Amino acid sequence: NASLYKLLQSGASFVFDNVVVGRNAMVEIGGSLTINNTLTLNSGGTLDLNGGTFTNAGFMDVAGGTVQLPGSSTVLRVTGTFRHRSGFNIDYSSQAAIVVEPTGIFDFQSSGGVFNNGGMQPTFTNLGVVRKSAGGGTSGVGGLFSNTGTVEALSDTLNFTQTVAQYDAGKLTD
Known about the structure:
single chain; mainly beta; five-stranded parallel β-sheet
């Protein structure tokens, strides 16, 4: 496990297997970071993806804390499983992007959501699976949601608050 604070500068690339971000810890990414196994974001921790590419190739557990994607060249790529258990929202803005690849699963397990925090409209592209499987209440998805994958509302409500582009290859289920 690694404790990280302002880990990356623009243009740098790092690969880790296991990372835990705890209270008062911050990961600030300006380059490229890949997590191959597990990243856990606990209450009080911050994951600030500003102008870099973060690839979740393993399992990411957002149990608390804050996730921010404030920059126009910021990309969160989900090729493994991203479990959002925190009641906090993931804020993205200024044309930032979340991309769930064909092998990826983005699973809402709380009332937290993903919201446009201002600036140019961000994009959430689903080529894999986006689901609401637990947690009670409503999870919202803001920004342009583009779907060719599968969207599943297995529990409570998954609310798309801005533009949705649904393509024939994808499916929406509840």
